[in-house]
Design goal:
single chain; about 260 residues; alpha/beta; Rossmann fold; 2 domains; about 50% helix
Length: about 260
């Protein structure tokens, strides 16, 4: 289901709530800081609600609809006051937009609130391009990169051209095509826990395709996918480095690349 729809109208200096996501908070905070920087550069007033927790996707994927509904209600109460909700994750925003109404289907009032908030919730790359019409300036990175399109961002939210448009503004960055760029990396949230052998086989094929691209960097818009692929590449002895696209667009990747060299 593609819920991209027409872009929302942005007021001047919109009040934006940054949904950090669990993985960014615990594994790669730099992505959160990069996201905040980009949103501010785009003209947003950014706030990070301290009460935010998990969006409920792991529970929902495991069939625990009751706990998902409880987390959805909490999420809605926290984020409703803002003009927009933005996260550096297609999977988390796909959850809030596509699946909150489903999890709350037996409560029409809450389901309607979920739909209204979902219409104002965006994956970062989509928000910057489709809503804020943002284009980064003064960014340079002498490297070659390839891009993986995550399943949720691509199929549920229609995120494809937006990150490529933004990365095209980075001077010196050469983008190389990735065979199977739209094929699952094998992470799939709880899928990799339930079916590790299948997951490992899928990410093995993905890692091989990344190596064949000849790129120095692997970029993407979902940290779960990136961590999964980066782990496989590292175990294979690859020198390819993985970054969230926000890190590159905010100029926060070059130092880490230099350290690796």
């Amino acid at each position: 289901m593609n819920l991209s729809g027409p872009p929302a109208e942005a007021p001047a200096n919109p009040r934006v709530a940054l949904f950090v996501t669990c993985l960014v908070d615990s594994m790669r905070p730099n992505v959160g800081f990069a996201t905040m920087q980009l949103l501010r550069e785009a003209g947003c007033r950014v706030e990070v609600p301290a009460a935010q927790t998990c969006c409920g996707q792991p529970a929902f994927n495991s069939g625990d609809t009751a706990h998902t509904a409880a987390l959805a209600r909490r999420f809605i109460e926290i984020f409703e006051p803002y003009d927009f909700v933005v996260a550096p994750s297609g999977s988390c925003i796909g959850m809030t937009r596509a699946h909150y109404p489903e999890a709350l289907a037996d409560d029409p009032a809450w389901a309607e609130r979920a739909q209204r908030l979902g219409a104002r919730s965006f994956e970062l790359m989509s928000f910057l391009v489709d809503v804020m019409r943002f284009k980064p300036s003064g960014r340079a990175l002498q490297a070659s990169a390839t891009y993986h399109d995550s399943c949720s961002g691509l199929r549920e939210l229609g995120v494809f051209a937006q990150p490529r448009e933004l990365l095209g503004a980075v001077e010196g960055l050469t983008m190389k095509p990735l065979e199977g760029h739209d094929v699952c990396c094998g992470f799939g949230g709880t899928f990799c826990v339930k079916y590790p052998a299948i997951s490992n086989a899928i990410v093995g094929e993905k890692a091989a395709a990344i190596e064949r691209s000849g790129a120095q960097l692997l970029l993407g818009g979902d940290l779960g996918c990136l961590l999964n692929m980066a782990g496989k590449l590292r175990r294979n002895g690859s020198r390819v480095r993985a970054f969230h696209a926000a890190e590159v667009l905010a100029g926060r990747a070059d130092a880490a690349i230099g350290e690796a060299d």
